[in-house]
Amino acid sequence: MEKQQKHEFRRSWDACREVPIIQDEQMPKKRVRCLKWFSCAIVGVLVFALALLSKTSFLLLITFGNNKTEIICSEKKPAALLGIGFVLVGPSVLLLLKSTWKFIFKSAAMPSKKTVFWVLFVEFLVALGAAVLTVVAMPHFDIVTNVMILNSVSILSAVFQVVAECLAKERKRLIMLPVSSIFLIVLGYVLFAVSYNLVIEDSPQMGISIGLAIVGTICVSVNWWENYSTLFSISFLEDISKDIAQSRNVVCIISSLMRILITSAVVVAYVPLSGQNWKSVESVFEGSTVIISLVALQIVSSALCRWFVVVACKMHSLHHSFALPMYMASIAVLAVFLIPLAFKLPEPNQTSTCFENVQSKSSDTLLRLMLTDATNTLQARNIVKKMSTGGLACLICSALSWWLGLMLSTFYIWFLKLHRIERTQDLFVRRMYEGAFLEQSMLLNTRFEIRKKIKEKRCTEETIRVFLCATMWHETYDEMMKIIISMFRLDKYRPKTDKYNPKTDKHRDVEFEFHIYFDDAFVDVDNGRQRHANEYAEILVDVIKEVYTIFSEEDPCIFKQTPPLPWQKIINTPYGGRLEYTLPNGNVIMVHFKDKQLIRHKKRWSQIMYLYYIFGWRLNRQYFKKFEVGEGLDDLKEKLKREKENTYILALDGDTDFQPSAVMLLIDRLKLYPEVGAACGRIHPTGTGPMVWYQKFEYAVGHWLQKTAEHVFGCVLCSPGCFSLFRGAALMDDNVMKRYTTKASEASHYVQYDQGEDRWLCTLLLQQGWRVEYNAASDAYTNAPQDFKEFYNQRRRWGPSTMANTIDLLGSGGLTSERNSSISKLYILYQIISMAASILGPATICLMISGSFVFILGIGENIALALAIVPPTVYLILCFKLTSDMQIKIAAIMSVFYAFLMAGTILCIIGDLVRQKTFLTPSGLFLIGMVVLYIITAALHPQEFSLVIYGLLYFLCIPSGYLLLAIYSIVNMNNVTWGTRETGGQAKTTAVDAIKKKVMNATCCKCPCLESEEVSSKEIQPAETITETEKPVPLETQRAEEFPLSAHQTWIEHLQMKSYDFPLHESALPMDEIDFWRELQKKYLEPLKENKEQQEKIANDLRELRNKVTFAFFFCNALWLVATFFLETIGDSISIKIPKMFPNGTISTTEEFSLDPIALMFLLSFALLLIVQFIAMLYHRVYTLIHFVAYADTEIKACRKQSHQVAQIQDSNPQYETYEPDTALCFQNPSVLRREVTSV
């Protein structure tokens, strides 16, 4: 009571607080909404415009085949029919190429004979119907009929919908729509026949054409049978549909070939049967471009329209950017062709507008002639000439009936519910569109589902469980604050329980659980008689308490009594200790303090620790218990399989800062694509100083170009351990988690396994057949090395590890490409080229430096090359003789001189461009091309465009980053220490920060007399430094076998005293979990025993490996340099001459540039690699925008729904008036809690 009174007294006069500053990079809600509407509007306009172009160009080709038209002479009509045939087979050719590619490089599953025969039969009907309708029948009809008769191909889809609705035994609310569609389409057929037969037309063969047209549309309407095959409960159709889904590539190849064959046969046979001659077609390719242009325009616009339709659907703009533009396309095309009736255009003249004369006309005149010619097909009919009211009424009503029939048969699209992101194969049944029926095929191809099944599907979606696992060691106070706040954000974003109704779960889509694995968390005190948590662990406890207070306190008003913080758990464990916190919104965070005397330390072993705890103990064990009590084996296997697939681990570093939206975007990737084993986000380095600025641009370029290219063309090779989401089923697969526990026993193991554990884990996943992806919209922030030494030591680990894992992957490239459908032989070739470029990087930089000497000093090329080679060669020799710290100091000095040299080079190149009076020089084009490419790339990442400022620093540091760093990394690859956070300075810094924060806490909520007890002297454990191998723990200090689970441990009492105002209640583990940890320690995580002989052997092996790799690495670079030297010595006899060109296009006759073949090959290869990466980046940006817009749309709707529910609850429960309703919005930082956290 006395403590509480003192606390209340202090709060009355000391109410000001210090709260953490959190950087919020998320876009505001209004800006996101504007981005969504702008993107959807652009896509909708493009869909409409492209559909209009496609349909107009196709109908013009149909019109050219009509005998009533005059723009093409009668003897030239076969050319138009051939153009129609090209339009019909165009999508089949594209599908054939796409499916053949996938068949060769991905899936090659073969269908059954039954499936092949059925596909051939259906494709025969569809191809025959489409060819007969468009080539034989439609050229005899008027333009109005041709525009609208294509809509009648929806008749069988409407029939299938009626049957499916009846079989589903659902309420018949929507069944009247397809029934009305059938009635309207049949009515259109009748009125169509009446308008041509009751009103006598000129052609006696019109009745045959009408019959062929009706039969053709019915045959074409069979095309979308697969959309309804699984709804009829017919085993034959269900088996075929499943077989087609498994062997889609081969089925598409067969169907494409059948379409091409049947269409070609109909076109070839019809021309002579109609009394025409194929000889006139030759003139089309000799001088005409009208028909060729129309065919090309139709094919390109159709393909682009189909792609933008897919984009619209994935952006959740199904109504405004897909269905509505498609419905309006027919109306717009009809309006375009009826313009000549409203405006008097010049009458065509057969002698002046015949095929051979139209080429001389202007484009405007040609367009007017084509529109007038199309209108003549309507004016030539007797019902128009005689103005027959009945005939015109039949024509108008038939056109309207067909259009309404299409709308009603596809009206289910307006009720279609989409997931946050959708696969194209889940949106559309068939892979490709129909060239002659673009809008009809896209609408009818949209997947149809019964309403009840949609609801059942949504209700039966399983909950995704995500375990956030962070590894910590010597993080500072600020770094710990970042990740703890990120975890509390996520707790607030997805509460485990509803604060209004605790008995019900608030969100069932995703559940989160947080784990922190703290390495080397204990320190000896009192001359080794006691073990206490070290200063880093104490700082973490203080950080959690501080953040907990901020997130649990809704109203900091001084007049409101602050409730005490709830009791939490502190547990003694076989590996050290554990703290268990229940967060304000119900989720749990566990802090695992590791004692290196009890369990193996370092990051990879912490990862193995949580992998086996989560998947082995928490997941597998519960199903094994169910099996022991007698549950069915098959049922348990199926449930276990599903839970493995729906259990994810988010790997984090101890200083990672992220938003909830970043996690949800990664979850979307794994949730949608079952073959994805891991996904990573965009990592942003944070910090200050030149080294961080350099890394900001380096990370940006790596993500903008390299990671996107890996994602698009194959798989991402490294999913960084600081922010990556892994699927449980992938990690538990053969040769992944088990192999990841391999203890390094050879020199190469230390390099590949322990120096880059995240890259090795991804290599194991790729080799096992899993896909690794990159999501550019998922942003995470992590501290980067801020001084030169720490940066070089970090990259000393990363460089050899990257090379070792890439070589391992390429070495098994053949087997990996067979197992992994995302890795093709071409992608392996791409990685080989990239690896070769990386290996030859130092030699390339030497050549660039020699060019700088030539520019600046004006010396000969060979002398310049020798001068460029000498400094790095000397540095290479010194690296074998000097200590690591001295090597880094020399590299820092040389980096400064190289930076001045690069600055001079830039100025000299600019001066040379001025002197040459042209920028079309090899060096000028290279420099300008690089600058333009990076600026365009940055412009396509508007939130990161400011990073181009650091591009100049990046350019100045190229010799340091790609020459000196490469030498240092290769020569020191035998040093397998971690290299970062290993100095005592960090501890002192964090201790000062901790004292500062504790003083602040004392002024806010603690008693001064107790605070003085906390600031007591204690020993700070010196950082551990391992020279050649991992330093083992002496045998005499191991306490694993004498681990006591006593009721009172010294470290527990110590932390309880430190955290008295955030009480920690001592608890205990169940005995079976204690046994699990002991067995896990014994098998995989037992501290390494000291063996000096083994240590020395490994050190010698590492030096020997270093010598071999160094020799091979620099021998390749030496070959490159020697080849260049001899080519420059030979001189003009083999150099390639490039004429000098001025910006105005004139070529100099007296001046020219010369390049040796190797330099030209390098420039072309480098340029080609950049262009390929740039194209991949463009593709990836589009799909990143699609995913982000879809995510924004679903989250905004979810927030509105939640706000509405909260309002209803508040109306019915007035006691909850203090609730803040904006906590679920993902774009606004959920940690910004009404003045508690400041956003900058």
What's the arrangement of strands in the largest beta sheet? 10-13-11-12-9-2-3-8-7-6-14
Globally, the shape reads globular
Please state the structural category.
Answer: alpha/beta
Helix content: 55-70%
Q: With helices defined by DSSP (H or I, 4 residues minimum), what is the helix count?
A: 46
Largest sheet: 11 strands, mixed
How many strand units?
A: 17
Uncertain regions spanning at least 5 consecutive residues = 348-353, 454-459, 984-1048, 1213-1240
Say what oligomer this is.
Answer: single chain
User: DSSP strand (E) fraction?
Assistant: 5-15%
N- to C-terminal separation? 40 Å
* C-alpha-based Rg, rounded: 36 Å
Averaged pLDDT, please?
A: 81
Explain what you see:
The protein has 1240 residues and is an alpha/beta fold. Helix content is 61%, strand content 9%. It contains 46 helices and 17 strands. The chain has an eleven-stranded mixed β-sheet, with helices on both faces. Strand 7 and strand 8 form a beta hairpin. Helix 31 runs parallel beside helix 32. The protein is globular. Mean pLDDT is 81; it is low at 348-353, 454-459, 984-1048 and 1213-1240.
